[in-house]
Structures are given as C-alpha cells and as structure tokens.
Amino acid sequence: MIHTEELPPEGDSVKARIRTGRPLALLLPLLLALGACESDPVDTGELAFAQVGQIQVQVQSAVAGGVGGLEETFSWRSEGPWVLAERISYDGQIGGETVRRPVLNPGELAPEYASLIQQLNATPGLRLFSEESPQQLNPECGALRSRVTVTLRDEVRGEEARWIRCADGTFFSTTPGSAGPDAGASRVVTAVQLSRFFTLGSDAISSYVGSLPFRTLAIGEDSPARPPGSRVFRSDDTQPPAGWLEFWGTHAGSSEQAPEVDWQRDMVVLAAVGRRLEAGDSVQVGRILPIDEGTRIEVVNRVPGDFCSPAAREGYPFHLVVAPRAEAPIQFADPIVERVPCGR
Predict the structure, then answer these.
(1) Given pLDDT bands bounded at 50, 70 and 90, which one contains residue 343?
(2) Average pLDDT of 102-113?
(3) Backbone angles phi, psi at 200, to 5 degrees
(4) Of 60, 204, 328, 340, which is least packed with CB atoms within 10 Å of its CB?
(5) pLDDT value at position 341?
(6) pLDDT tens for residues 293-323?
(7) Claim to verify: residue 130 and residue 264 sit in the same structural domain
(8) Is 205 within the bounds of a domain?
C-alpha cells in the first residue's frame, strides 16, 4: 500500500529557492533572536558531527483529535539523496503510506546537506550540541501533541546523537513557537523546519493533510468480487449495512467470517477502478476529506510507467479500509492516476 511520488521542481528549483534565501527568510527573526543571547560558534576545525552520515527526523502526530495518527519519517544522507515516508493509521493499524524522493541529482543536494549540518553544529541559536538542548530529555507529549525526534548519525565517528521534544503540528506544519517542554526544544523543531526547507521547499504539504484516519482491511490486485468501482458501506445503526455481507462473502469466500466493524462508529470504504488487463495496477485510498457538505474521498490508481512492459493479466485491484463514520453525502473524486517507474 505504498504510494511513491517523485517530487518535481516547482517553478524555480528547491536548490535555487534555498540559495536565494526565500524559504529561510521565514526563520530569520527567530534565528536573530536566538543568536543574540549565545556565545560565539564552537571550533569547527574538524569535520562537523554527521557531516559524513545522515540526519533523520521523525514526527508522530495525532489525527482527528487523537483517534488516528500520522507518522512522518524523513532521512537525508550526506551524499545528497533523501526520502520522506508518511504513514496514516487508525486504531493503531496502518491505512496508507506514501513515499517521496527528489528528482534532482543527489550530488546537487550534497552541498545543501553540508550547509544544514554545519548550522546544526555551529550556528548560535541553532546548534543542537548545547546546554540549552540536552539529549537526555525524553518528555511525555500527551495524546494531542506531536512527538518530534531528530537524530544525527556520524559514520566517521561511528556515533549518533538524538533529541526528543514535543510540539504542535506535523513535519510540514510544526513551528518552533509550539515546541516544549524546555527552551532548547525550539532548536530541535527548527532543525525539522530547515530539513524540510532545504529539500521540499516552504510550500510543500502532507500527503494526508485534512484527511480522516483509516486502517487497511485488505488490499490487492484482484478482488474475486470484481467491483466495477468505489463504494462506501455505511450503516445508520449498529447492524451491517446493505450489501456488505454479500460483498465480503464474494470477495473473501463464504467460509471466511466478515471482519468485525463497529458500524455505529465506523464505515468501510472500498477503493476500486474496475477491470484492468495488465499486471502491476494497484489502487489505494488517498484521503477521506470532510467538506462543507458531506465527504469527498480521493483514490489513487498506480499504473506501470510509459516504458514498462507489464504482463497481460486481468484483475480488479482494490483497497478496503475502515474509517470513522463520515458525514453524508459521500462522493468519490475522479481517481488520481500515477505512473510508477518500472521495478517499483
């Protein structure tokens, strides 16, 4: 259930935006304020910590008031390549995952990585290796606040350093002003912001922004029920809605008992795009979005790229998820077609 996205340049490249200073301008007032009350930078005559290695950022945040969760893990290596994985969950079970990677040559991103690491090691107000931001702190963030972890791994020294703090928001929206519980927490969250600005830019958003949480019941390339399209199973009481038991019996076989669903609280969404004639087609729920009048559900249809040679095979790809019972009317947007490079 992994949706992979190559991040294309938008207008001028991310690299150009960084070099012109536009994304970092948003942080300038904070950096000046932090730097004004700190001594000169430490000696950087030797390699900065993690200059050869990687930075990893993980943000675990609540969705829909804590009934679901979003986990975002960003890793950036000193050679230049980075990857961002986002996982949405409900009742502690994963519902969907997206993965983003850059389209720029990794070598072009290596200088930007080196610049970030130098700032986190030496710049007043930013450096993580400071009495202001002890590594030993491991706070309880509560159900509604986000848990932010920044890890630097140094391959030359064979060591790693880690900071854990609390904040509001996701990898894309958390701000130093919301960080706690200590004053040094703002440095940890600023490291998250800088990692995002240096790679995705200041305008990037989460793949699941605005979505209700969901968890996967089943996913595959061929449902024996042969669904012609997407549909929602939603009850007005505690009993299974019309069509659900019949669908499940055809899909999974009459001998397999239907999964338990709290129909008073939840609903089941079936994402499907009908008959497909090539192997490699897949479908997944993208987002379940409350709107002004009802709910809109986005479905992603991943198909082999233009230069792939998939085998001929009939199938009915599907994704079944459980989500909180959403407001009617519920509509499906036109499927988002994504072409996947061969071998992924």
Answers:
(1) low
(2) 88
(3) -95, -20
(4) 328
(5) 74
(6) 999 999 999 988 766 767 788 999 999 999 9
(7) no
(8) no
Average confidence (pLDDT) over 105-132: 93
Domain membership flag for residue 92: yes
For 46-94, how does the pLDDT look when each residue is reduced to its tens digit (9 = 90+)?
A: 899 999 999 999 999 999 999 999 999 999 999 999 999 999 999 999 9
Q: Domain range holding 229?
A: 215-340
In angstroms, the CA 34 to CA 32 distance is 6
Q: Given 154, 172, 199, which residue is the final one in a domain?
A: 199
Q: Does 22 share its domain with 154?
A: yes
Alpha carbon distance 130, 119 (integer Å) = 13
**How many residues would you count in the chain?**
344
- Spacing of C-alpha 277 from chain mean position: 31
Instruction: Specify the CATH number for the domain of residue 192.
Output: 3.30.1560.10
In 3D space, the residue among 72, 94, 75 whose CA is nearest the CA of residue 85 turns out to be 72
226 falls within a domain: yes
Q: Indicate the number of domains in the chain.
A: 2
140 and 242 inside one domain: no
Same domain, 24 and 126: yes
- Which residues, including other chains, have CB under 8 Å from residue 315's CB and lie 6 or more apart? 221, 222, 275, 276, 279, 281
Residues 36 and 170 occupy one common structural domain: yes
Q: Are 125 and 104 in contact (CB under 8 A)?
A: no
The pTM of this model reads 0.85
Looking at the fold, whether 175 and 324 belong to one and the same domain comes out as no
C-alpha dist (Å) from residue 257 to 84, 192, 249, 254, 270: 37, 45, 8, 7, 18
To the nearest whole number, what is the mean pLDDT of the chain?
88
The verdict on 176 and 235 lying in the same domain is: no
Model confidence at 125: pLDDT above 80: yes
- Whether 31 and 175 map to the same domain: the answer is yes
User: Which single residue is written with the structure tokens 């490291």?
Assistant: 191
Contact 172, 100 (CB under 8 A): no
CA distance 226 to 251: 8
183-229: per-residue pLDDT in tens? 999 999 999 999 999 999 989 999 999 999 999 999 999 999 999 99
